[in-house]
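Minutes, project check-in
Item: structure for the 77-residue chain
Input as provided by the requester:
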Amino acid sequence: MKLVGLFNKMEEKVGFRLAGIDTKLVKNEEELNSIMEEIKVDKDIGILIISKTVYKFNIALFKEIEERKYPLLQILD
């Protein structure tokens, strides 16, 4: 299982990348929706770590993810 992080700040992205987590920088809702389409079909992703700002880009989308068994969702403050 893989861990994936979605962040809106480069500092967060780099920090988690140094820990060995695959990370992506998300600047707006359009980018988020595109990335989430890929994540939804990837069955290897076990944990999705996101920043609070990314969560606010599309709350309904993440509510849908929370209802699934995988990936587990962790929101950072």
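Outcome recorded: The mean pLDDT is 94.
No further action items on this chain.
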